[in-house]
């Protein structure tokens, strides 16, 4: 089946910043992304879990964007200022996609 | 004095307090007992709706006078002023950075709605009346403290993120909107509205509160377990010193504006309590460099249990003695 | 006429409507107030179970006659026929594609169970009796409209996915199974069964409905905000024209089969309401090319609020005047 | 005899049983009806809290005597002894591996709290009293069976993972902690505590239980559907033979320690029931090679429905005849 | 530690199609997959979120399959007809797995 | 934007083993990881779903660790004994991360 090169960008970011991040993605012309819930984790600031939590202060989400390789740089440039002072981890993986006309 | 002790004693063996203690003990013992996030949020939505609605019905029943306006004003002033007191006290008691001190100060200027709910449940259990609009005062006290803390940090050379988006988020955050909205609905529909849904918002209220406190005990205990070490003795000390200080200031405010004894007690409770929902979220956005473990553990793990067990009966007794 | 207005007025300031309005306002103002998906689903399961069960108990109490069979038949005919009316009206009023018109038509032939629940709560509040089996009629009206829409689209040269799996999904979808199952359990266990669990399914019912409507307001408001632009004036117009048209046809059907005034009102409500749970899901499978934003926003953001606020009191008044 | 049949018949058409049947039928018919995980957990937390609390209040009301200690001791002995019976019976009836037999045996030595809850609801419905501390006995019977099964498997040359962490997990697992904690709170706060929250833990209890059983029916039905084939006739046979065997042994224990007829019935129910929450989780850790589909489907898909429909009325009738 | 080449196939598909997709995977002999919940996202048809939703019409799931490289083509061929007319995004990433005997 | 080579380790493990796994990660010096909920799946032992479940016996979680390449081996060695007898799937993918100073 015909596949096309693409990048899978996975952004783990604190939940409070989700809207700011997706707004920034939108401004950078990235309208395709998917948000996955995160139930817990651990980092330099220690472990955390969403269990029984009401407030949104402790918690993260995973935002996954599949983009054409040439769209990667604008995406990262848009994302960076949002994450700058905030908790967030960005990874970029080479991947292949079906139906590239959608991207 | 004997009364205070007996009231505190009674309070300590109420299902509410024991549920909180059970949760805390389970978390400290590393039990896997836990509430799903959705269930915890569901209970919190229920409690906010019920307490707001009943407050509105109270205003509808007793009419509204200048008292409401005065109380709202007093609440705003307290919320904006208490962070300065907290900030100063933290400088004396702790070695926290300016950023962390400002963040903690914002939490203590703002309020904890569950502490308010627990206190009004206790008042109701004792048959002590209070102004229905105190729930609106609680809502009004959420945000000014954040403004004060950002002002403090700016003056100290900090660089808070205070974009306009932040202000919409703070003023329209879910718990304020639900509390104020339910208050308005209760006010508009009055006793008829209450009769319509009292089997939902009154009868099971205390039971839901027990389960919610159990969950809060679990979260608080887990926070304490994970944050051991992050909290110095001075920081812990602040967590039990600040509430009575705030309560004393709240007492003054309540007396000046002429609230009923029950209202004075609730004003003290509001001033003494520390936010653990709205402010932590706002601080993550506005002051990301502040360590959330410090302020959240302090508010939820130290001050909340202190108020729940000893603070509330104390404030009640003082309000009864002074304003009664 | 004065009665209609006063009934509508009373309805508008009931906790139910105000909760819906609060949710919609909060979403339009971009508040972050929201219910977890699991809590929303939990409330919906509760409402379906309670309304089904009580319907069944009603049938057990008053016995079953040819009325039930006639009403079921009328419901099926309405559900299969209304899509043609809607499809025609959409051609006149809008420029939607044939596929989108068929999809919207399926929504309006089918029914909204929450509209039904809100209407029966209003009837109960006014002490107006209705046939318990109307809840079974509601269940029977979910699916035929889908069949009709697929027939329309096939005839127009479309290529709906109507594999056998789809039919099992539609007929055994969770809300139908729960509604019909609870109806059967209520019927079998009757008043004894109700006595057993009435503190759960009757007492808190209206309060849960209020919170659920708050959530629906939030979802509807968010949909409207995100879909601005996708909805032309003609499409919006259809959303408020179709309900009275459907209600008028439902009125005819209810009178022909000789329902009580309360039953006629509910038949009007069913005909006037549009599905926003079962049919949208079925359309995603069967007509994936239809734009879900159009039909869902129309059903939930326009027709649902219209029925809730103005429609239901209107249908009630008309049913009372004509069948009373 | 006629009494047993009429009691069983009445039981079969109670809302509780019908809800379970509805869930099972829906799952077997592949309906997509389902409860969100968070809602299922929320209902289970509610039921554990309520049943524990009410048990504690019962002890507070009637005082505690040597009966409590004897019953706890009997429970521990039963829980540790029944796995040997089950293990032997499985060797005769099935061709399961030693590991799978040990895992199943652990489930049947331990208890199902929902079976206990359903039985006590039936007792209450019939006005038959029982010792409040039976809920503590239920808690005490969760863990010993696991120990017994690990001992069996070790002797058979197996290599269970019995690290100290496992023991903390088993003894402090969420459902035990909540049940025992709520029991303690009920005991401490007594009738006053109950009065405080009875509108939450008593009035809606049976309704919540109905919905929870509906969910259990869904999960059990799905399990049966997916595990068809994994369960031989011998395994299925064990699922209906073991409960009466366990109940007979429980009957002996209850009579020896002198429980009331209601207490004897509950002791039989505990002995007859099989764990489907705590033990499956413990077995995943300690005996990962055991096939979870076998023991879980057996406990939840065969034994649970057997006890719910036929077992409980039978045990009740026998207890009434022998101990009455 | 000994690792083996494999493909990580990530299928984002609308929730209503989950069963059809996993049935198709089963028919293609792919019995190993894991389903992750998705809480929101955005695409050409605009943003969506599961918050407060009851119906299943708006919503997606992420299905992750780890397969041996030679099993990729049958997998994609089985998946394609299901996604054809539906909302769905497929990405394939080179990865390495432990314990390949399981795949 | 400056990116750094890293490994994305994704561990699908039964829920009961989550704490043992993260404890093992901690002992191996891996303090950064994120846990995502899993709603269902299928494997050699058949399909499963979390819907309506109360017990934790049937269910998995996905643990994602981003690590510097040289930290991969200690990580896998720490993880292996935990997964040895248990249900679990480990995949390792080459990726690139921003802000490597955090890892
Ligand atoms: N190396 C990592 N791999 C995966 N997730 C991470 C990593 N580092 C941090 N995280 C996530 O980011 C959160 C905050 O990290 P930190 O700012 O280091 O405390 C953690 O709780 C994890 O959820
Ligand atoms: N490039 C992308 N990366 C990640 N997810 C996407 C992408 N494009 C679409 N999606 C997901 O697929 C859904 C439907 O996309 P669309 O059909 O373009 O509206 C979106 O709401 C996203 O959840
Ligand atoms: N090839 C695979 N790809 C993704 N997930 C898998 C795979 N194999 C197994 N799993 C997951 O691991 C669980 C247990 O697998 P198993 O031990 O084979 O029954 C499954 O239910 C899936 O959630
Ligand atoms: Na305060
Ligand atoms: Na209709
Ligand atoms: Na047993």
From TrEMBL, chains A, E, F:
GO molecular function: enzyme regulator activity
Pfam families, per database record: P-II
SUPFAM superfamilies listed in its UniProt record: GlnB-like
Gene Ontology BP annotations: regulation of nitrogen utilization
Superkingdom of source: Bacteria
Protein name: Nitrogen regulatory protein P-II
Organism: Rhodobaculum claviforme
UniProtKB/TrEMBL annotation, chains B, C, D:
Transmembrane helix recorded as keyword: yes
Origin superkingdom: Bacteria
Keyword set, alphabetical order: Membrane, Transmembrane, Transmembrane helix
Residues that span the membrane, as ranges: 12-31, 43-62, 68-90, 102-123, 135-154, 166-188, 203-221, 233-257, 263-282, 294-318
One Pfam family matching this protein: Sbt_1
Protein name: Sodium-dependent bicarbonate transport family permease
